[in-house]
Amino acid sequence: DQQVKQNSPSLSVQEGRISILNCDYTNSMFDYFLWYKKYPAEGPTFLISISSIKDKNEDGRFTVFLNKSAKHLSLHIVPSQPGDSAVYFCAASGPGGGADGLTFGKGTHLIIQP
Amino acid sequence: SAVISQKPSRDICQRGTSLTIQCQVDSQVTMMFWYRQQPGQSLTLIATANQGSEATYESGFVIDKFPISRPNLTFSTLTVSNMSPEDSSIYLCSVTGTGGSGVDTGELFFGEGSRLTVL
Predict the structure, then answer these.
(1) B58 close contact with A: CB closer than 8 A
(2) Domains, chain B, ranges and CATH?
(3) What is the pLDDT of residues A60-90, one digit of tens each?
(4) CA-nearest residue of chain A to B31?
(5) What's the confidence (pLDDT) of residue B98?
(6) Residue A111 and residue A113: Cα distance in Å, rounded?
(7) pLDDT at A95
(8) Fewest Cβ atoms closer than 10 Å to its Cβ: which of A49, B52, B78, B79?
(9) Domain A4-113, classified CATH 2.60.40.10, yes or no
């Protein structure tokens, strides 16, 4: 049973618009959430994270929102740029973060169209 | 963040053979992990590589199939033994991030991965 779900395998967004990637989780023990970006033939690159004590974390063009009651988080990218085209993975862990081991979703392939 | 190098970056292997993947980090790190990404699937944790002791394996993964070594704080190997086509995956080494104070930051950083194809 998948504990972290990314229900959209792909998403196409026009350059300059907002990209919203969604992620749902089932394990209420998850305490720390992360987003990774992956280009082909490269390892995942850490983007942004959020602790369960917060509902929003912002870093430049990237904002992550957490709705604990709905067990849902989303990554907003604004404005979207061509270099944002990649696969985005949502991940979750216990309070120790990566040291506890991360549970990943299957990823969403974001395509930014010119 | 640490620079993580993996070798080989890709390989094509015959069924029944074994392959060892190396992971080298440019600084000492507390924790190292091995993940697998099968085609179309999410990344799955195989094991935690413990320095100086046996690795800690996740459910569904065993030492006989995936022996792991970690002789020091900057290096680890993962061997995929007696390979079958189902082992065709990307294998990724990862380490915890370390802040200026040396405390783990919570994030994991990944190597570029080793893509194995088993025929």
Answers:
(1) yes
(2) 4-118 (2.60.40.10)
(3) 999 999 999 999 999 999 999 999 999 999 9
(4) A99
(5) 61
(6) 6
(7) 80
(8) B52
(9) yes
* pLDDT tens for each residue of B96-114: 876 544 455 578 889 999 9
B106/A97 touch (CB, cutoff 8 Å), yes or no: yes
Contact residues on chain A for B58, CB-CB shorter than 8 A: 101
3-state secondary structure of A97: helix
* Chain A residues 8-67 within an 8 A CB cutoff of chain B: 32, 34, 36, 41-46, 49
Q: What is the DSSP letter of A50?
A: E
Residue A84 neighbours by CB under 8 Å, 6+ apart:
A19, A37, A77, A110, A112
Mean pLDDT calculated for residue range B40-59:
92
pLDDT band at B52 (very low <50, low <70, confident <90, very high): confident
Chain A residue with CA closest to B110: the answer is A43
Taking the Cβ of residue B111 and every Cβ of chain A, the question of whether any pair is shorter than 8 Å is answered with yes
Distance (Å) from the C-alpha of residue A56 to the closest C-alpha of chain B? 17
Give the mean pLDDT of chain B: 91
> What's the CA gap between A82 and A13, in Å, rounded?
10
